[in-house]
Amino acid sequence: MADKQALEQFFRDEFPQANFSIEAVGDRHAQIRKQIGFEHLRPGGTVSGPLLMEVADAALYVAILGEIGLVAMAVTPNLNINFLSKPAADRDILANCSLLKVGKTQIVGEVTIYSEGKTEPVVHAVATYAIPLSEGR
Questions:
Q1: Which residues contact 22 (CB under 8 A, 6 or more apart)?
Q2: CATH number of the domain bearing residue 61
Q3: How far is Cα 76 from Cα 17, in angstroms, rounded to an integer?
Q4: Helices 4-14 and 49-68 meet at what angle, rounded to 10?
Q5: Are 71 and 15 a contacting pair, CB within 8 Å?
Q6: Which structural domain range is residue 108 located in?
Q7: What residues form DSSP beta bridges with 33?
Q8: Residue 134's pLDDT is what?
Q9: What is the pLDDT of residues 82-135, one digit of tens each?
């Protein structure tokens, strides 16, 4: 298992391009925050779909590493995403992840993303991560 401080250091060292903050992690859950800026918007003034997919994937990765420890080579073989409503262009987005199945070589989780301060979700995603045997538990 990895706590919030260890994860923050891991992302600084291994993924310095990761530009999100970890709000909470533990007990098969994680919440991350992504600050939205002009560079994240697409025509029509909404947050881009690829960015929302990135945030969903990152939230799952944080929850997984919080559960199994720092496994850099865990990868996403599957991610299904539903865009439910238009995210606010002027608010951070919050991604909440829950792990549904934690196996030795495969982990499945779901992520719900909200615009900060809103109660209706903007995204729901379900994804699978593959855990390499050499780094498995």
A1: 4, 7, 8, 11, 30, 31, 32, 62
A2: 3.10.129.10
A3: 18
A4: 120
A5: no
A6: 4-135
A7: 21, 94
A8: 67
A9: 999 999 999 999 999 999 999 999 999 999 999 999 999 999 999 999 998 865
Question: What pLDDT does 81 receive?
Answer: 98
Q: Do 93 and 122 form a contact (C-beta atoms < 8 A)?
A: yes
When divided into structural domains, the chain yields a total of 1
What pairs with residue 75 in β-bridges? 130
- Tokens linked to 80: 């299904």
| One-letter amino acid of 53 | M
pTM beyond 0.85, yes or no: yes
Tokens 């615009």 belong to 115
Beta bridge partners of 47: 41
The first and second tokens of residue 66, run together, are 């919080």
Task: Determine the Cα–Cα distance for residues 82 and 62; give it in Å rounded to an integer.
Answer: 20
Query: Which positions ≥6 away from 99 have C-beta within 8 Å?
Result: 28, 29, 60, 63, 64, 67, 107, 108, 109
Please give the single-letter amino acid code of residue 44: G
